[in-house]
Here is the input.
Amino acid sequence: MRIYFPFLSAFLLLVAAAGAHAQANDDWSNRTAISTLPFTVNEANFYQATIDPTDPDPPCRSLNGEAPSHSLWYSYTTGTSTEYLTLTVPNSHVGDPIVSVYTGVPGAFRIVSGGCSKYSDDDGLMRIAGLRLAANTSYSIEVATQFGSINSGNTLDFSVTAATQYAVTKTADTNDGACDADCSLREAIAASNANPGAVRIPAGTYSLTIAGAEEYGNATGSLDALHGMG
Here is the structure.
């Protein structure tokens, strides 16, 4: 004889549905607020995160790859002045991580200029360096993976820090190896290549006058920015 327990079945279905959102910040409306910097988090349950219908498809993902299959949300609100942030996923434990930064709300998200990056084999990490954020503005940050399904051994390490700033102070093209009170655009980019951050460039006309053979070290000729910068 079989005995059915319809109420128990309904309860199990509810538990299963709840398991789909094992972390509150799987949902945009419950995104984790980043209140102080530096911010670092280890999301051991990232493998349980899902993609909601209203989650945006990051514009910088590989066009020939899979759409994101897991994502978590964070929020950050700037103070009374412009801020520059660096966002990092320091390893590939989650497989091809993508970070994208938006203003707006579901259905009306607007990507921040420069606010999308994916994992780089060259650097061995995902990094947005020196992202410029306007004052008194609320931002939503989506951390996703383009790797398909991941298992319980895949944890997400994510950090947000105030970016190092390199202020260009002159239009002349010099290269003395330092970006200090006397800092050219070339010197600022070289400093950011060594320690990624935000290169702040005032209005002006910048002529590149250091001639040289074709190379990619930013020493002569054209400028070579090795990392994204605000």
The CA atoms of residues 46 and 179 lie 40 Å apart. The helical segments are 6-19, 185-194.
